[in-house]
Specification:
The complex is a heterodimer. Chain A is mainly alpha-helical. Chain A contains twelve helices and three strands, in the order ααααααααβαββααα. Chain A folds into two domains: 13-118, no CATH class; 139-268, Alpha-Beta Complex (Outer Surface Protein A, domain 3). Chain A has helices spanning 2-5, 14-28, 46-68, 70-76, 78-91, 106-112, 120-136, 146-150, 177-185, 218-228, 233-243, 249-262; strands at residues 169-175, 195-207, 210-216. In chain A, a hairpin with a 2-residue loop joins strand 2 and strand 3 (210-216). Chain B is an alpha/beta fold. In chain B, strand 1 (43-46), helix 1 and strand 2 form a beta-alpha-beta unit. The N and C termini of chain B lie far apart (51 Å). Classes of the chains: A mainly alpha, B alpha/beta. Chains A and B meet through helix 2, helix 3, helix 7 and strand 3 of A and helix 2 and helix 4 of B. The complex binds fe (ii) ion. Residues 175, 208, 211, 239, 281 of chain B line the site of fe (ii) ion (FE2).
């Protein structure tokens, strides 16, 4: 500590830089060396004054995590959530200036870290909340309209490729996390967590500024995933025909496409 | 370690409305003081998402709004949509919390680019941030951290302000923060540091009356000395806010109405600095708009008491 506080470095910026380093360690790591740099206040001890920053750092970030995962908080309760949020704050210091993104890795943290990883519905509930937040302020883009689609000559239909709106996020869940989300949204007692027999396909997007999600049937999920991967519409129709009743495949494909357009899921 | 008590405010946020979600359903370094000083905007308010619809549906008597820049430094969606509508009707000022102008870490150009992009969209009357740092070594503490008032720190901040002003192509406005500690190495008072900084860089000052009150109490000096130490022609904005009194120190929480002592100090500040754009900052316990409009009107009345009815009789440019 003595060496750190001596003024022997030749670099003119080193005192200031070294002080910031000590201060940051004092806040992040509870290292007390910076106390030697701090004066006692007129009415308060220096350690109590430094603790204002230590406390504020954690309280602020914990509050951000709470606000970003409202239903996960409702689901596990305030005390358990506080423990989670504190663990996250200590494990994942913020690496970029905008606090908007601070809590972004919470689903992965839940997935990787005990005890939370043993309850997979928590990471999935968090992933759904994150996807809704991401859809909320994702980039704007003009949406595809029925009129615009109608302008495409029938001969070119097979070759058309559709581009998803930038707000669209598709992922599967293995638990009833979506059901749990809906229960919290409606202020009902959430169902007990359970593993689904087969994964559910979620699609999250923004429609008229409001983030939304729905659960897709297998066929729609497949068609959407292929469309997003860049497959032309004709190929998607063929895949639907291969999957089930070939007669009705073009109609099924058209109905899906119309649904996407009406919901603002495709970019113009 | 005691983990109780209020936390200083930092920023307001933003994802309000998310859970409506439902199932399917010029070389600025050479700026001459005062030549480019922005106009007096009157009496304003910090824009908070809770008030979007009240503002757009009503016609609240608020002269201008300040936005937290970071809340709109997002790709798109509702925040920017609402902001576009509000800026059609009101002058807007951008106020950031993470420029980290006094950090010894390298300048974050990604941040500055995003800030500039937002400024291109918003055309703010000015851009402000705080005289503080928010982290080093790639980490962000999301707090307004204190600096030692040394010659070395001053030289460093002067250089950074010049860099940022050149990048943004406009002067920066910097705010004094609430601080809870003082460093033993400080060689000058905070107001001397600010006065030097504005003289050397041409930056403007956002004078936060509550922060002066808080820091003066925490460090045991007379807030009037602070006011007297700031050059009269560099202050372009006042902040007024509430705080939490902890007996031995005060924490800048922005979760209460402005207190009487801060109103008194505001009157002194108006006497010294004249007609300066004034606003109320509230970041927590956000009340209905009408309550904040009442506080804005109180500021109007106090300023009119000092300057005359239109608030412009004092020092104007
Ligand atoms: Fe302020």
């Amino acid at each position: 500590m003595g060496a750190r506080n001596s003024h022997r470095s030749p670099d003119p910026k080193s005192d200031f830089a070294a002080l910031q380093e000590r201060f940051q360690r004092g806040v992040l790591d509870h290292d007390d060396s910076v106390l030697a740099d701090i004066l006692a206040g007129p009415r308060e001890r220096r350690d109590v004054l430094l603790a204002v920053y230590r406390h504020a750092y954690r309280a602020r970030l914990v509050e951000i995590v709470q606000q970003d995962y409202e239903y996960l908080l409702a689901h596990i309760g305030e005390e358990a959530f506080a423990e989670l949020a504190h663990a996250y704050v200590e494990a994942r210091p913020s690496l970029q200036p905008n606090a908007r993104w601070f809590s972004h890795e919470l689903p992965e943290f839940l997935q990787e870290t005990r005890p939370w990883r043993d309850a997979p519905e928590l990471a999935e509930l968090a992933a759904l909340e994150r996807a809704l937040s991401d859809a909320f302020d994702a980039a704007d883009a003009p949406v595809m309209t029925i009129e615009r689609l109608a302008a495409i000559p029938p001969t070119e239909w097979g070759a058309v490729r559709f581009v998803p709106h930038p707000s669209a996020i598709r992922f599967d869940v293995t638990t009833n996390a979506a059901e749990i989300w809906v229960a919290h949204k409606e202020g009902r007692e959430p169902p007990a967590a359970r593993l689904l027999e087969v994964p559910a396909h979620l699609l999250v997007w923004r429609e008229d500024l409001v983030p939304k999600f729905r659960i897709l049937e297998d066929e729609e999920a497949m068609a959407w995933d292929e469309a997003v991967a860049g497959l032309p519409f004709g190929t998607i129709c063929e895949m639907l025909a291969f999957r089930a009743d070939p007669e009705s495949a073009p109609t099924r494909a058209a109905v899906l496409l119309q649904g996407w357009i009406v919901s603002g899921l495709l970019k113009a | 370690m005691s983990e109780a008590g209020p936390k200083p405010r930092m920023r307001s946020r933003r994802i309000a409305g998310r859970n409506q979600a439902g199932r399917a359903g010029a070389t600025i370094a050479a700026l001459k003081p005062s030549s480019d000083r922005p106009d007096f905007l009157g009496f304003g308010l910090g824009l908070r998402p809770q008030h979007y619809s009240e503002i757009l549906e009503g016609d609240p008597p608020i002269d201008w709004f300040e936005i937290i820049s970071e809340n709109y430094m997002v790709p798109g969606g509702k925040p920017l949509h609402m902001l576009d509508r509000i800026r059609e009707r009101y002058p807007v000022v951008m106020h950031g919390v993470s420029m980290s102008i006094a950090s010894t870490a390298p300048v974050n150009y990604d941040y500055l680019r995003d800030l500039k992009r937002l400024a291109d969209r918003v055309a703010p009357r000015w851009i402000s941030d705080h005289l503080c740092w928010t982290g080093v070594h790639g980490k962000n503490l999301h707090d307004l951290l204190p600096i030692p008032y040394t010659q070395e720190a001053l030289d460093h901040v002067v250089e950074r302000v010049q860099t940022v002003q050149e990048f943004l192509g406009r002067p920066l406005t910097l705010e004094n923060v609430s601080t809870y500690v003082q460093f033993g190495t400080s060689e000058m008072a905070e107001w001397e540091f600010l006065a030097e900084l504005t003289a050397r860089t041409g930056c403007f000052l956002l004078f936060d009356v509550n922060n002066v009150y808080v820091s003066a109490f925490n460090h045991g000096y007379d807030p009037e000395t602070f006011i007297a130490g700031i050059p009269q022609d560099r202050v372009v904005q006042f902040h007024l806010a509430g705080h939490s009194h902890m007996e031995t120190h005060i924490i800048d929480t922005h979760d209460h109405p402005v207190c009487d002592d801060v109103w008194t100090l505001y009157e002194s500040a108006v006497r010294r600095f004249g007609a300066v754009s004034t606003m109320i900052e509230r970041d927590d316990n956000i009340p209905p708009l009408a309550e904040l409009v009442a506080e804005v009107n109180k500021a109007r009345k106090i300023a009119a008491g000092v300057l005359g009815a239109d608030g412009r009789n004092g020092r104007t440019q």
